[in-house]
Design brief:
Blueprint lengths: L3 H30 L1 E2 L10 E2 L3 H7 L2 H32 L6 H8 L7 H12 L5 H10 L9 H29 L3 H9 L4 H29 L3 H7 L8 H9 L5 H34 L1
Antiparallel strand pairs: 1-2
């Protein structure tokens, strides 16, 4: 008979790390969120102010705008990555010349650190130096200035994120497609189903758990995007996402209490979205069992 203490003993190192570097910092941030704390203020130390920080962010136009901008960025980036990742995964399920080389080159962006990705794209789009503004101006007579036009900055951020994370979506989709049994697909073709019907009624139901899990991971990444976007545009117009707004509140303003409250609300919104996806995955699992 197995001893349950052995399992807890094996899990204890991981649990200790999670408690020290995850749970305890969360409790500290939660505590600071209910206090007014500015190290450069006239009064030293923290001063308890209850829910004032949370009440303040409800009427903070800059915070609300950052949430809307982050949501727009996440929707466009994740939707593009899912579509491109699925198409590339479908292509990689077939044999074609140079397939192995393409798979290696395709995964290169995943090996690059986010801050390096931002620096690379900054060199590509910086006016007077990067090739992108030069070619757009010469070929299409388009003035490309991400520091001036918010829409261009947001579009560039989305394209950069798609370039960086589409390989991850491709790999997850490829794993999902490879796990689909051939019998249902062949049976649907024998019954006269076309390609769209096979995809909608056979492939998509099998891919749904993989798809939702991939979106789950990408939503968490998109909401906390800071480093690569900061390197690209420095938090200028069109790129003032929630993570960058938190950084501005905590570091330049040194308003730790208000910054902590924003972090807690951002975490709450992330948990709500992830919970909805979890319900979708659980519902799919129950349907399959029934």
């Amino acid at each position: 008979m197995r001893n349950p203490r052995t399992g807890w003993l094996l899990l204890s190192p991981t649990l200790i790390v999670l408690i020290i570097f995850g749970f305890l910092p969360f409790l500290y941030v939660l505590f600071v969120g209910f206090n007014e704390w500015n190290i450069f203020a006239a009064e030293d130390g923290m001063r308890f102010n209850g829910l004032d920080n949370f009440r303040r962010l409800v009427f903070d136009d800059d915070f609300l705008n950052s949430v809307g901008l982050t949501a727009k960025f996440a929707v466009f980036a994740i939707a593009s990555e899912v579509v491109l990742g699925f198409l590339l995964a479908q292509m990689l399920t077939r044999n074609f010349p140079g397939k192995s080389l393409f798979r290696i080159i395709h995964t290169f962006p995943l090996m690059v650190a986010p801050i390096a990705v931002g620096a690379i794209w900054r060199l590509l789009v910086i006016p007077g130096f990067g090739p992108v503004p030069f070619l757009l101006d010469r070929w299409f007579d388009i003035e490309y200035l991400i520091g001036t036009y918010p829409d261009q900055a947001l579009l560039t951020s989305v394209i950069m994120d798609v370039w960086h994370w589409t390989p991850f979506v491709t790999l997850t989709m490829l794993a999902g497609l490879s796990s689909i049994p051939k019998e249902p697909v062949e049976q649907a073709k024998v019954d006269g189903a076309n390609r769209f019907q096979v995809f909608w009624y056979v492939t998509l139901p099998f891919l749904r758990p993989v798809l939702l899990t991939t979106i789950f991971i990408r939503i968490m990444d998109a909401i906390r995007t800071v480093d690569e976007v900061w390197m690209l545009a420095g938090g200028g117009p069109g790129t003032r996402f929630t993570g960058i707004y938190i950084w501005r509140v905590v570091f330049p303003r040194t308003d730790y209490g208000y910054g902590s409250s924003i972090s807690i609300i951002t975490l709450y919104l992330t948990i709500v979205l992830c919970w909805l996806l979890f319900i979708g995955i659980s519902g799919q699992g129950k349907d399959e069992v029934e």
